[in-house]
Specification:
It is built from 13 helices and no strands. It is an all-alpha fold. α1 runs antiparallel to α10.
Length: about 300
């Protein structure tokens, strides 16, 4: 793919596959626990797991130097993103919420242009909006349902704070170890979410069955630690807007997986949305080749 090497493309596809599979897993397992407690457990356990792995490299934590960066990232990428996202399920259908949340790549492209100085052509901007139209088509059934003003606001705020959080991580990526950023961001943010959940929700409402434990286990090992380490390493090495646009594939993969698991037929809307998202990724990553310069020696 133009503008991306094979290893980067493979890592991006692995990332969106993990996130795409995560949505249906969390959707099923979240039914057995209050949202903040469920989100907090996944984040805290996932963060602690990375901490354990990184203990041998504790000198790279540099807590006194970077604690503010860890806390800011935890606020945007865990507390606000996980908190608003999970609360949004109480007000909107999953399809509509995913459309609003995945407006994030569009915001990310704009913010990367404003704050990171990343170059954006007209074709790149067109690609971003094309991808958003693609996931909207896939989730069109959710768009026809009853709209909740609070739910729409929560979805848009989730996208906004997620984009801000990603831009912040990109800006400090040269200063902070990506593994420790994931560890601290989710350990701190998960603890805050569990505290908020303990104050507003009931632990007795949790059903400790196999599906719930599988959801927490998947999120604590693959869905959060592995996925976000890949995500932040890609941000550190590449262009934020290019990385962000690949997340348009997440709801598409999620719908595909849900369709296969539930046994429903693949619809024309799903195929059309996928085509638009693929075109979106191409346009955002397209760079016009420079003409070869003929050198004449005498």
């Amino acid at each position: 793919m133009s503008g991306l090497n094979k290893k980067t493309t493979a890592a991006l596809l692995l990332l969106v596959s993990i996130w795409g599979i995560s949505w249906p897993i969390y959707k099923v397992s979240a039914a057995y626990a209050p949202p903040l407690l469920f989100g907090g457990m996944r984040a805290l356990f996932g963060g602690c797991l990375v901490v354990l792995v990184m203990l041998r490299f504790r000198s790279e934590l540099k807590w006194r130097q970077h604690w503010r960066k860890y806390c800011i990232s935890a606020l945007f990428n865990t507390v606000l993103f996980f908190g608003l996202h999970t609360l949004g399920f109480n007000y909107l259908p999953g399809g509509l919420l995913s459309v609003l949340v995945y407006f994030q790549p569009v915001l990310l492209g704009v913010f990367a242009w404003i704050w990171l100085g990343e170059r954006m052509t007209v074709l790149n901007v067109f690609g971003l909006f094309l991808g958003f139209i693609g996931i909207s088509i896939v989730s069109v059934d959710g768009l026809t349902s009853h709209l909740s003003g609070i739910g729409v606001l929560l979805g848009l705020l989730t996208a906004f704070f997620w984009a801000i959080g990603v831009i912040y991580v990109k800006k400090v990526s040269e200063e902070v170890n990506a593994f420790w950023m994931v560890a601290m961001q989710f350990t701190i943010g998960g603890a805050v979410l569990l505290l908020l959940g303990s104050l507003t929700e009931s632990w007795s409402a949790i059903e400790w069955n196999g599906m719930f434990l599988f959801g927490v286990g998947f999120g604590s090992t693959v869905g959060i630690p592995v996925a976000y380490i890949i995500y932040y390493k890609l941000l550190q090495a590449g262009v934020a807007s290019k990385v962000g646009v690949f997340t348009f594939l997440v709801p598409i993969i999620s719908v595909f997986v849900s369709t296969i698991v539930v046994g429903e037929t693949i619809t024309f809307k799903l195929i059309a949305g996928l085509v638009l998202v693929v075109l979106s990724i191409y346009f955002v990553n397209y760079r016009k080749k420079q003409p070869a310069i003929l050198t004449v020696t005498y």
